[in-house]
Amino acid sequence: MALLQMIGFGPTGWGGLLLVAALMTLCVTAVALLIGAILGSLVAWAKLSGSRILRTIGGTYTTVFRGVPELLIIYLVYFGGSSAVTAIGTAMGYEGFLGLPSFAAGALAVGIISGAYQAEVFRGAYLAIPKGELEAAQAIGMNRSLRFRRIIGPQVFRFAIPGIGNVWQLSLKDSALVSVTGLADLMRTSQVAAGSTRQHFLFFIVGGCLYLILTSFSDRIFTSAEKRANRSMPTSLGQA
Predict the structure, then answer these.
(1) How far is Cα 52 from Cα 44, in angstroms, rounded to an integer?
(2) Closest among 30, 25, 44 to 160, alpha carbons compared
(3) Closest Cα to residue 185, out of 18, 31, 69?
(4) How many angstroms separate the CA atoms of 200 and 205, rounded?
(5) What is d(CA 21, CA 27) in angstroms, rounded to the nearest whole number?
């Protein structure tokens, strides 16, 4: 009974704080995925461009941020960002250390990591578009913006959904590392609860179960989105 009270929603329970922490984890992951989508789109465009310099830059980005440990990237972003903020504050007359907000640092770091993986997802999705459709679109006089709106955009989105779902799951798990910056996410709150109650096994099991609930629910959403996209995909040239 005492153990149930610890994870419950009563005055002495940690249930409410754990749910809030789970919501914080979702927020960090969602913002990181958005940042990664922007970076990944730009990097994918660079790797598909005809410029050797842009391809080199894109390849370097994906190689570095997929090869360096995620925790190291989080440290670099957090402490590097804090140093930059401190330098700016000093230049404006403020004194002392100014730390980068934990949420911003965590979302940016996980977003940079996510962007490296999303770049490959978008690149692969673009290459999966039948070349005949692109050639036919050019033959009937479609300009670039119309080709993107009618053919490239919808098909890249459809082909990319499974890969983006995998990247989301990776980002959701990577967000646990953000706890090192002091952000009260699910991992950090589980650690604090375990240390306060000395029930480490209990709270880490509860934290793990909450992560499984989040990943399972997310997987259902992406699977449903993939089925809907495949079912409703129009014939692009026919509707042009």
Answers:
(1) 13
(2) 44
(3) 18
(4) 8
(5) 10
Q: Which residues have a Cβ under 8 Å from the Cβ of 187 and sit 6 or more positions away?
A: 25, 175, 176, 177, 178, 179, 207
For the chain, the residue count is 240
DSSP 145-201: HHHIIIIIHHHHHHHHHHHHHHHHHHHHHHGGGGGGGT---HHHHHHHHHHHHT-HH
Q: Are 100 and 182 in contact (CB under 8 A)?
A: no
**54-72 mean pLDDT:** 94
Q: Could you read off the pLDDT of 35-52 as tens digits, one per residue?
A: 999 999 999 999 999 899
Complete DSSP assignment for 103-151:
HHHHHHHHHHHHHHHHHHHHHHHHHTS-HHHHHHHHHTT--HHHHIIII
- List own/partner pairs for 199-206 with CB under 8 A and 24 or more apart: 199/3, 199/6, 202/3, 202/6, 202/7, 203/6, 203/7, 203/14, 206/7, 206/18
108-134: pLDDT as tens digits:
999 999 999 999 999 999 999 888 887
pTM, whole model, 2 decimals?
0.87
Q: How far apart are CA 25 and CA 202, in angstroms?
A: 20
Nearest to 39 by CA among 85, 88, 83, 73: 73
Cα atoms in the 13 Å half-sphere on the side-chain side of 38: 8
Residue 217 has pLDDT above 80, yes or no: yes
State the amino acid at position 7 in one-letter form.
Answer: I
